[in-house]
Write a structure and sequence with these properties.
This is Protein scribble homolog. InterPro entries: Leu-rich_rpt, Leu-rich_rpt_typical-subtyp, LRR_dom_sf, LRR_domain-containing. Keywords: Leucine-rich repeat, Repeat. It contains 6 helices and 18 strands. The protein is an alpha/beta fold. It has a domain at about 1-190: Leucine-rich repeat, LRR (right-handed beta-alpha superhelix), CATH 3.80.10.10. The chain has an 18-stranded mixed β-sheet.
Length: about 425
């Protein structure tokens, strides 16, 4: 097992390592250092952490250049204005973090680090990169710099699996981005595209995911600090997920903006979206654009604060899975059963429904139905669901089933499961 010793700032500008037999991990973070201390290479460590200091230049030979085994170097949150070319001598370096500095360029020597797989240079002032590709790079964070285009060297680095371009002034994505065949996640704010209504075809057909974050405190009239809305889109598989860390959307003044961002995003990928996950977003109504998603097969809006389900259902003819559990719903559209002919799974549990629409009995393909604690005990319609295979109920609903339709459900081979409140009470909002 790797030995680990945390070395703090000692004796002026030196690290006093004489009383340590061996160590592989040097941590000099948060020590108010202005220069790189000498003697860092005494025991040839694997990791050196120098983050959150006041270091202006690096490296300074010999403090680090003798570290032939060094694999991890963290220089983040310093005052570096440049990296020296000698960094290429760290031939075993795999992880380099120079984020939150004052860098305006990256030396060609970084491209000679054959083992480098993780490079974080976010929050600097870099406008362009050398044209040479990275030999083995897999994870690259260029966020919050001064790039106006995607660097050519990045488009040549086919080993990249994660690329973060957020916080730059990149208004278009090059067609050559399709060359990044190993890319899994692209962090890019599609709102920066010059024409949001015409997302490039290449963007819709690549298998990687696109992610971006909207800061609530940047929005007009917002009283929220630190709250964010995070979007994840995987265009090729038609997947959209939205996450928020704010519990009071309406109170922090971002609800209208959230609706706007949702509608804009849905509009961008309208012709490809097949699955939308808006669970736990504290939304009060569904985006209007949702009704135009003709290819949508799965919709999860559970754990929100919907008092009704106002969506225009006729546009969702392909919808197969619908989850509106724990949404404070008091009513379902009367036409829900008539307008969702492809529905195979429906979860309306944990709501405040007073009654269920008669049209629920008109769902010809419904196989899974969750009713537990939905607010009412109507179960007669279950006998009309010829494809029903599983139904989840609470105790009161089970008693009603035993009275009116247990024989029919048994004959059809339907499994009736009793769900106790304690099984999910910890999930209540």
């Amino acid at each position: 097992m790797m030995g680990k010793v945390i070395i703090l700032w000692e004796q002026g500008n030196e690290v006093n390592a004489s009383r340590y037999n061996s160590f592989n991990y040097i941590n000099l973070s948060n020590q108010r250092l202005k220069t790189v201390p000498y003697s860092l290479d005494i025991h040839d460590p694997l990791k050196i952490l120098l983050s959150h200091n006041r270091i202006e230049t690096f490296p300074v030979s010999p403090p680090v250049m003798g570290c032939s085994k060094l694999t991890h170097l963290d220089l983040s949150h310093n005052l570096l204005s440049a990296l020296r070319e000698e960094i290429r001598l760290l031939s075993n370096l795999r992880n380099l973090n120079v984020s939150h500095n004052k860098l305006q360029s990256i030396p060609p020597g970084v491209y000679e680090l054959l083992s480098l797989t993780v490079f974080d240079m976010s929050h600097n002032f870099v406008q362009q990169l050398p044209p040479t590709k990275f030999p083995s790079l897999e994870w690259l964070d260029l966020s919050s710099n001064k790039f106006q285009t995607v660097p050519d060297s990045i488009l040549q680095t086919q080993s990249i699996t994660y690329l973060n371009l957020l916080g730059n002034d990149i208004s278009s994505l090059p067609a050559d981005i399709v060359r990044l065949t190993n890319l899994d996640t692209l962090c890019y704010d599609i709102r920066r595209l010059q024409n949001l209504s015409h997302v490039p075809f290449e963007l819709k057909t690549m298998p990687w995911g696109i992610e971006w974050t909207v800061n609530c405190n940047d929005m007009p009239n917002s009283t929220s600090a630190g709250n964010k809305i995070h979007f994840i889109v995987r265009p090729k598989v038609g997947y959209l997920q939205v996450k928020t860390n704010t519990k009071e959307v309406s109170e922090c003044g971002v609800y209208e903006h959230l609706q706007y961002e949702l509608n804009s995003t849905i509009n961008c990928f309208e012709d490809t979206l097949r699955e939308v996950n808006l669970s736990n977003c504290n939304i009060q109504s569904l985006p209007e654009q949702m009704s135009f998603l003709s290819k949508l097969t799965k919709l999860d809006v559970s754990n929100n604060r919907l008092s009704s389900f106002p969506i225009t259902l006729p546009g969702l003819q392909s919808l197969q899975v619908l989850n509106v559990s724990n949404c404070s719903l008091t009513v379902l559209p009367e036409s829900i059963g008539d307008n969702l002919p492809s529905l195979t799974s429906l979860d309306i549990s944990r709501n405040n429904l007073k009654t269920l629409p008669n049209s629920l009995s008109n769902l010809p393909r419904l196989e899974i139905l969750s009713l537990q604690y939905c607010g009412c005990h109507q179960v007669e319609f279950l006998a009309n669901l010829t494809s029903l295979r599983y139904v989840n109920v609470d105790l009161a609903q089970l008693i009603s089933i035993r009275v009116c339709c247990l024989d029919q459900l048994s004959a059809a081979g339907t499994t009736v499961s009793l769900i106790h409140w304690e099984m999910f009470s910890h999930l209540q909002t």
